[in-house]
Structures are given as C-alpha cells and as structure tokens.
Amino acid sequence: MTALLEAHALGMRYGRRRALTDCTLNIPPGHVVGLVGPNGAGKSTLLKLASGFLSPTSGTISVLGNTPGSGTGQLARVGFLAQDAPVYPSLSIADHLRLGARLNPRWDQGFAERRIAQLQLDPTQKAGKLSGGQRAQLALTVAAGKRPEVLLLDEPVASLDPLARRGFLNHLMESVVEDGTSVVLSSHLISDLERVCDYLIVLVSSRVRLAGEVDEITATHHRMVCTRRDPGALPAGLEVVSATHTDRQSTFVVRSDAPLPAGDWAAERLSMEDLVLTYMEAADSAAAEPATSATSTGSAAGAGSTEGAEVAR
C-alpha cells in the first residue's frame, strides 16, 4: 500500500538554522493527520516540502509514492492551503472558481458551486470583502475543488473565531467523507484536532517526537502516580517519557505496548492534549539538558503572485 507521506532522514536548513532534522515518517493512506508543535518546530516546512514548494537539503520525501511537485500529474493529486488562506482580494468568488477550473485538470465545478451555496456566499462578492472565516472557506473550496487525493492544510483555522472554526472543520470532514481524501492538518488548537484526526505527529525543535494512530498512541501511554522513586526502579518495558517528583511522590508518563503491570501506583490514560504537551515539555527539557538521554525523555518516538500560486495548488 502506497504511503500517504513517507520521509527518510529528511532535513531542511534556512542558512544556519535547522527547520527539520532527521525526520523519518511513514503515514498510511486514508488518514486525517494532526500535525502539532510549537512555533518554529518545522510544521510549515514539512507541509511545504510535501507540496513541492521547497526541496529538502538532506534526506528524501515522497507523497503518494512520488516526489512532491514532480510534474502536473503529481500537482493535481495534492491540494495545499497555506496558513493565511490566500485569496485574490480583487477577484470575486466566481472568479476564483473559474480560475480553479482553468488551472486544475480534475476540477469539480459542481462540487465547488454546491459548497459556496451551502456557505450562503454570494458568488459575485469580491474576496477582499469577505470575513476571515469566509476567506478560509473560499480557499478550502478551491483546494478541495481540484479533487486532490491528499489535502495539506497549514493552520487554516488559526485566525478564526470558535464558530467559524467549527464550520470550517465540519465542511472539511464532509469533503473527506465524500471523496475519501486524506488530510494533513497543522494546528495549535489541539481540541480541534482531537475532533477530526485519527493520526498524530508531534514536532518539536525540528524533530519528530511522536507519530502514530491516535487510538494506538492513547492506549499505550499512561500517567502513573506513586511513592517517590527513580525511573530505574520501575518495571522493565516501561519507556519513561517524563518524570516529576515532590518530596514524597513521583509522577511518570510512560509508554508501554503491553498492559501496565500491577504495582503500588494509580494509573490513567492521557488525553491527546496532555499527551502532546508532555512530549513538548520533555523535548524542551532535553534541549535544556544536552546530556539527558533520548530514552529518559522519550524524544525519539517518531523514528502577491506567490499567494495566488498557493491558492491554485
């Protein structure tokens, strides 16, 4: 089965700054992927590499089995929506749909017109007069109207109010269900991702810290609270992701493929938000203490005209 996205030792530099380091991923098709991490973690860079807007400085990346941006056939299979949901302010909604039809061989005019009608938008309205949420919906309509096999969305809901975010995500999932489109969605809003995503990637400081199916990840991570002890005193087979201590108590977040053994501790599963924040904090701690090993931190789990071009893609 051809991977949705496959990367091996992928790296990207901007001058002296590393945007991605040794990124290795193999994402099966058919998923809605949540891509999370702090600002500067490399999320936008990964999506731009996957869409073909950038070329890596090291390693390899493929999307749907092909090099990103390698010809019109590959471009037709991948839709990309940049963070600022770019549209042409001087063009009407109908103009955007006509532009989409001219630039995309698989364009579905009926789908695009239905979405605009569902959103109760006036096709004659200039894009520059739309609200932020309406512009995002127009940009999503153009990206989805090309009928891609995968949609790459870079924080498309970051500037939207909660109601507009919900509407955007609902229409996104309608497109996924209708077409079977795979999606990679970058966002800081973990609660939104929790509603729609079934695969998770955590990027921190240019590296993949965690990647896998949400159900599997949440089933294999636990928070354990017990009398104070060192991580080395825990049973074998428990990977310690993070550890905090008081005078009398220790709290560990552990990963284990097997059921937790019995012991003198209370254990509970973590929510997606807790899980993401734990890996982000562990990675920050590791960066602050270079001598700390990867095992103790759990940091290696993941083994203008330009704007118009991004709309058309």
Short description:
By secondary structure, the chain is α/β, with parallel strands linked by helices.
Write a structural description:
It comes from Actinospica durhamensis. InterPro entries: AAA+_ATPase (IPR003593), ABC_transporter-like_ATP-bd (IPR003439), ABC_Transporter_VariousFunc (IPR051782), P-loop_NTPase (IPR027417). The protein is an alpha/beta fold. The protein folds into 2 domains: 5-214 and 304-312, Rossmann fold, CATH 3.40.50; 216-297, no CATH class. It has 11 helices and 13 strands. The strands form 3 sheets. It has a 6-stranded mixed sheet with strand order 5-6-7-3-8-9, sandwiched between helices. Helix 6 links the parallel strand 6 and strand 7. Helix 3 runs antiparallel to helix 4 (109-118). The longest helix has 18 residues, at 162-179. The relative contact order is 0.15.
Total number of helical segments?
A: 11
Q: What's the quaternary structure here?
A: single chain
Strand content: 25-35%
Strand order of the largest sheet: 5-6-7-3-8-9
Q: CATH topology of the largest domain, what is it called? A: Rossmann fold
The CATH homologous superfamily of the largest domain is called P-loop containing nucleotide triphosphate hydrolases
In CATH, the architecture of the largest domain is 3-Layer(aba) Sandwich
Q: Order of SSEs, N→C?
A: EEEHEHEHHHEHEHEEHEEEEHHH
Q: Main β-sheet, in a few words?
A: 6 strands, mixed
CATH class of the largest domain: Alpha Beta
**Radius of gyration (Å):** 21 Å
Low-confidence stretches: 291-313
Mean pLDDT: 87
Main structural class: alpha/beta
What is the domain total for the residues? 2
Shape: elongated
Distance between the termini: 25 Å
Helix content: 25-40%
| Number of separate strands | 13
Keywords: ATP-binding, Nucleotide-binding, Transport
Organism: Actinospica durhamensis
Region (Disordered): 287-313
Protein name: ABC transporter ATP-binding protein
